[in-house]
Every structure is written in structure tokens, then in C-alpha cells.
Amino acid sequence: GKDGKPAQPVAERIKELEGRLEEAENAPKNDPDTKAKLDALSRKIDNLKDEAVEAARVEAAKVGGGKVSAEDLAKAMAEEQAKNAPTKNLNEALDRLEISQGEKEQVKQSIIDAKKQILETLEVPTADGRNLAEELIDTMIKIQNGDAKQSDAMTIFAEIAAQKVPGDIEGRTYMDAINAIKATNKEDIGRILTEKDQAKLTKAHEDWTDFEVGDGDPWGELYMERVQKYNETHPAKDD
Predict the structure, then answer these.
(1) Do the beta carbons of residue 82 and residue 59 sit within 8 Å?
(2) Can you state the percent helix, strand and coil of the chain, rounding each to 5?
(3) What is the pTM of this model?
(4) Which of the two ends of the chain, N or C, has the fewest CB atoms closer than 10 A to its terminal CB?
(5) Calpha distance 53→42 (Å, rounded)
(6) Separation CA 151–CA 17 (nearest Å)
């Protein structure tokens, strides 16, 4: 977008507007503004659909040398949307960028390093000696097994936002320290990627340190350790 934010994929924008249209249609009808809002939303959706078709038609024309069949158009539209679809899989996201294999490895390593720093920050014991990284992972495992609620994880996130990191020279909270790591990671990757490729990466997933990197993910190792510990203390229930 013009304000520096990446443009939202067309398919996503259509879906979002259709959701708003549905909400508006279910709203009380006696509001004189409602009809005008509905009409405006409908027009927006139609314009977006035209935009998507046009982008797909251009792509199909490149391939087919001018003539475009309905089948080619549908295929090109699907490809256009797939290219812009959000994904947390880093390898998938990197395949959309115009970079070398070496640069892909650099980006991946930069994200792994940032993940490691975030994990190390959360492993700094709190003033009362707790390990928030382990607590967070343990809570996630419990939620998956029905032993905890989503709100329990939110409680830990609230503590991460409020508690100060003992010994931090700048007196930051855990969240402030993590956000600083994320900002540095963006700068590091910004030195590897063009602005266009950075926008594509953001379109895939906004929080780069949250990409799934596969092997070498320090959070993955901690997760496996904690699952093992959970299984030792929670024997499988016999049905």
C-alpha cells in the first residue's frame, strides 16, 4: 500500500468485505444509512473481483500469447491467489522471493538466531524464579490436551508484557526486550532482501520471527522436551 503497509491479497480483501456485507445485512434495517453502506460494500466487492480477474487475465495472456480461455483464467486466478495466500511455512514463503539459495539460507539463519534470542530472553528467571518460556510451552501442551484453557496462555502473555527482565540494563519488560529482537531481525533481513521481497515476506506472515523454520528451531526442541515431561507425568488414559 501507499502507507508502507503491504497490500492485502485480493482474495482476502474480498472475503473480509463479504464478511462485513453479511454483518451489515443482518443489522437492523430501519437505519437509513444501512442501505447506503450495503450498496457501497457491494460496489467495493465487485471492484475487487474485477481487479482479481484483470490480474489473472494479464498473467494468462503472458503465457498464452493473447487469447485467454475461461479455463486459463480460472487457473491463473488460482495461482495469483496462491502466490499471495498467507503461510507460516518459511520455505514456502521464501520460494516466492526473487533471491538465491544462499540468500534464503541467510534469511532462515537470521530468523533462527532471533527465535533463539527470544527463547533465551524468556528463559531468564523472573524475580520470583519462574521460567516463562517453559510455562508458556507447558500451557500450550495442556491446552492441546484439554487440561488448560486459552485464557491460561493469555495470562502468561500478560505477565510477559508486564514483568521486567531481572538484570536488564535498560529496565525493559520481557515484551519490550522481545520486540527489540524482532526489530533487529527485520533490519538484518532488510539488508538481504529488496523492499519488494520484504513486502512479499510480510504478506506471507507479518511476524517474521514466528515463521515455522523446521529443523533447527530452538522452540521446537524445547517443545519436544516439555511434551516428554508432560507424558511422563500424565500417563495415557485407558478408554
Answers:
(1) no
(2) 70, 0, 30
(3) 0.66
(4) C
(5) 17
(6) 29
